[in-house]
Amino acid sequence: xxxxxxxxxxxxxLAVGLHxxxxxxxxxxxxxxxxxxxxxxxxxxxxxxxxxxxxxSSVQRALAERPEPVEAPPEPPEPVEQPTTPPPQPLPEPVxxxxxxxxxxxxxxxxxxxxxxxxxxxxxxxAALAAEENARxxxxxxxxxxxxxxxxxxxxxxxxxRRLAEQQAxxxxxxxxxxxxxxxxxxxxxxxxAEQRARQVADAQAxxxxxGAASAPPGQGGTDDxxxxxxxxxxxxxILSKWTRPETVPIGARCRLTIRQSPGGNVMSVExxxxxxxxxxxxxxxxxxxxxxQPLPYxxxxxxxxxxxxxxxxxxxx
Length: 318
What we know:
- 51% of the residues lie in helices and 8% in strands.
- It has helices at 5-32, 57-64, 119-215, 225-241, 280-292; strands at 254-262, 266-276, 308-314.
- The longest helix is centred in the middle third of the chain and has 97 residues, at 119-215.
- The protein is rod-shaped.
């Protein structure tokens, strides 16, 4: 059983009371055993009364351990009185009396006071507090683990996003390189085709010139340069009337066109040849203008009409 504060207070009060009672009994005993003065003949003997409690512990112990007094031997028979008066006998030295030990008070029995506190309730409360503290510790640990897990997941997601971004950037770079290679190859093929068409046109023009020279009336040299120039100008104006110049094509820029047509000016095909200062948009726009301009000028130009003709179109505003 645990000692409470009230038990400690009662024990201190009882101890102080016991010491006070012992002091009072010692004083009363000393006063009660005081030695009275003895009237004796002769020179008086002085004696001091000493309080036993005032003596040192070693003196008190020596007095307590003092041997028992030895009985005096029997006095010899008194002699016959002589006529002379005997001298006075000295009085025996008074023996100090032993100070009686005061009776010790009977110690008070320790009374066990009932504990008003329910120990089971205290134990249950302590267990509940311990369980609550343990629950708080576990909850704090769980939250910290959740924070660490979230941080790891965030870091993993960031790394995954970086890898995806790097992969996408690499894929874009490869796609751009592939597009550049494709454009280069397409441009190379166009150059080769343009060169091939130029050779074909040159061959066709050479054959046409040879045939015209053979069938031309005498005195005209086989061709009418003035009419051909007018034909070229008419074609230029017909195509220019249907063409909307892109901003990327500067005024005065030239582009060679190869047009295949049937008698009457119906366009069968049109191709952009080389050299051509137009970009891709300009080339597509001039091809569309040629198709919109059909039928091309024909009436009056039958003598200089060509199924396959090549013109150098010059960019101008309408």
